[in-house]
Prior knowledge:
The chain is an alpha/beta fold and 271 residues long. It has 2 domains: 23-189, SPOUT methyltransferase, trefoil knot domain (Alpha/beta knot), CATH 3.40.1280; 204-270, tRNA(m1g37)methyltransferase, domain 2 (Trp Operon Repressor, Chain A, Orthogonal Bundle), CATH 1.10.1270.20. The chain has helices spanning 56-63, 100-111, 132-139, 156-161, 178-189, 237-255, 257-270, and strands at 37-43, 67-73, 86-87, 97-98, 120-129, 143-148, 165-168, 222-223, 226-227.
Amino acid sequence: MDDPKTPPARSHGRKAIRPSLKPRELMDPTPELARVWKAQVITLLPEAFPGILGQSLTGRALKDGLWQLETVALREFGDGKHRNVDDTPAGGGAGMVLRPDVMAAAIDDARGRIAPVAPLIYLSPRGIPMTQQMMQRLAAGPGMTLVCGRFEGLDQRVIDQYRMTEVSLGDFVLTGGEIAAQAMIDATVRLLPGVLGNEASTEEESFSHGLLEHPQYTRPAEWRGREIPPVLMSGHHGEIAKWRRAQSEELTRTRRPDLWADWSARKDKAD
């Protein structure tokens, strides 16, 4: 870096803002919030945050200080006059690879502002798939540091050095890790106490118990010739619970045989 004494730009969540502020202004620098779940994002596109995370329930929770978001601009740690962050692949090939020295400098800077036990996660299409159980574990911790890849990815040496956990949004390739990072943060933040307001609302969601969620209905009772299933209008809570469980099982069996096989195996073992 040209001037190692100049600290990189940082951004944080905050407890309160004026109602007229736009979502991006949730990222204005503010003091650290003690004992608040924190998401750090190391990215070449800090202006992409908070993005959708600044809207709806996650945005309200960010304003209220129920969680904190910090972006770490990777370009600030770049090399030389032009702040270079990448170089050509060793051995040849198309594209560019994020440099380990640049990424390491950003990681070292970021990790000094988060609990040491918070996981360091690299968002990568070759990573393990995101799951609800993963989000539940993350929500129970102090936060996480997410590294957003770009170009052809990140030098393997820095992944190995920091023992990063590689996590994937799905079996497809994005132009960068920012969308995956926002998805991961959203799925985790909504599980934090007080974010949804009704803690029971997550108990019967898809994947929470290994099954897909049952269908949902609301008024009007009849719409375009389609009626709400009578059992849901019966007021018989026991029968409603049985119907919902049966629907969840059937949906999982037909749509996600992989989940059905895992759930069936666990159920047989428990029995």
